[in-house]
Amino acid sequence: MPRKINIKRSVLAADEEFASKIRERLRKEGTLMVNLIGSPGAGKTTLLEATLGEIPFSCAVVEGDVATSRDAERISKTRTPVVQINTQGGCHLEAHLLWKALDEIPTSGLDVLFVENVGNLVCPAEFDLGEDYKVAVCSVPEGPDKPLKYPHLFHEAGAVLLTKVDLIPYIDFDGDLFWGDVKKLNPLASCIEVASLTGKGIDAWTDVLGRWLMEKRR
Amino acid sequence: MHELSMVESLIEELLKLQKEHGWERICAIRLRIGAMRQVIPEIMHFAFDITVQGTALEGAKLVLETVPLKKKCRTCKNMWTDGDEALFLCEKCGSSDVELVEGMELEIESLEVE
């Protein structure tokens, strides 16, 4: 005869333990961790390249991709320590993968750890990596309707970056609709427009990172 | 298809619990899933049924309970339930300082075991 047992435990409990370990380690080190989430081709790696060229802090990067180490090769040209994780088909990073990758990154004395998640607006928002902030990265060519279509990510993000704004003259993009929907979902998020190739908005973005770092170390 | 990622984690967790407690069989699983998780029940059931094949969980019944969105205004303390995943404005005072109190659950509520 079957008997009922109350569990009340997260479905993701095993991975959440790794996320807690990462959060605790980075709290002790005073390292800010930012989890960049966006579609394939949103411009996450190009944003990182532009950021690493301007930012006045010591940084490291963990790259998450289904396959190849192309992103890590691009980041290493900026002389920033980088580790590539290949998920072999997995559509998002999980905390146990990141915990292992952190073995290869000296976080002592590190100011900011960037994690570039696998290109996807859905699953990466579900899995806590131990980050201080999720950052939603969305590009102009993707269209202005993405916040409402993927509310979980945009609701949770500490900042929303609209990339490739230098393409606005060539694309029918309703910026008022995009930012209006972001505000409805997440009135407290920092909202920044960037064009990584021209450098537009990168200073506003690094200012936000600086504020987050200061708040963490206060 | 984030349901498949959830199902994979769920099965890992269930097999771990089964081993820890020495249950012979898990007959039914009741999950509480917040509306903000945007889970489509049909896809969740489909992903579960194909993933448990060949495991100790084959034949187990999955029951899903959806937890509606509950929001709380930090300004006037008003608390309300609605179905709008995209609107975080207080319906009473208009403040945008609104937190999601319920609707993000992804929890194994209970099991039926033998």
Keywords:
heterodimer, A: 218 residues, alpha/beta, Rossmann fold, 8 strands, globular, B: 114 residues, alpha+beta, hypothetical protein PF0899 fold, three-stranded antiparallel sheet, 6 strands, 27% helix, elongated
What report would you give on this structure?
The complex is a heterodimer of chains A (218) and B (114). Chain A is of the alpha/beta class and 218 residues long. Chain A contains nine helices and eight strands. Chain A has one domain (13-217): Rossmann fold. Chain A has a seven-stranded parallel β-sheet, with helices on both faces. The longest helix of chain A has 17 residues, at 13-29. Chain A is globular and about 65 Å long. Chain B has 114 residues and is an alpha+beta fold. Chain B has a single domain, classed as hypothetical protein PF0899 fold (2-Layer Sandwich). Chain B starts with a helix and ends with a strand. The interface between A and B is medium-sized, with 33 and 34 residues. β1 (3-10) of chain A pairs antiparallel with β6 of chain B, so a sheet runs across the interface.
Major sheet: arrangement of strands of chain A: 4-3-5-2-6-7-8
Number of strands of chain A: 8
Portion of residues within helices of chain A? 25-40%
Q: Name the beta content range of chain A.
A: 15-25%
Task: Provide the domain count of chain A.
Answer: 1
Structural class of chain A: alpha/beta
Query: What fold name stands as the CATH topology of chain B?
Result: hypothetical protein PF0899 fold
User: What is the CA-based Rg of chain B, rounded?
Assistant: 18 Å
Overall pLDDT of chain A: 96
Largest interface, counted with CB-CB under 8 A? A-B, 33 and 34 residues
**Helical residues, percent of chain B:** 25-40%
- What's the total number of strands of chain B? 6
